[in-house]
Amino acid sequence: MKVKGKRGDLLATILIVTPDLISDKTKKLVEEFKALNDVHSPRETLYSKASL
Questions:
Q1: Is 42 part of a structural domain of the chain?
Q2: pTM of the full predicted structure?
Q3: Is residue 6 assigned to a domain?
């Protein structure tokens, strides 16, 4: 929503709910997904993408 002459930051609260226990199959799939991702942390490439 734009208000003429007004600017500001948008503050959002995000709630992420994760299960306490996961099955062996789920754990294996999560580990496989992690192995397939090239970047371990999005912060590792943050500055190069921003061209700083």
A1: yes
A2: 0.44
A3: no
Q: Which residues of 29-52 are buried (b: 16+ CB within 10 A; e: fewer)?
A: eeeeeeeeeeeeeeeeeeeeeeee
Task: Give me the number of domains the chain comprises.
Answer: 1
C-alpha to C-alpha distances, 25 to 18, 22, 28, 30, nearest whole angstrom: 16, 8, 5, 9
Identify the domain containing residue 48 by its residue range. 22-52
Lookup: tokens for 45: 């490439």
> Per-residue confidence of the chain (52 residues) as pLDDT tens digits?
666 767 788 899 999 998 999 999 999 998 998 888 766 677 777 777 776 5
What is the token pair recorded at 48? 């190069």
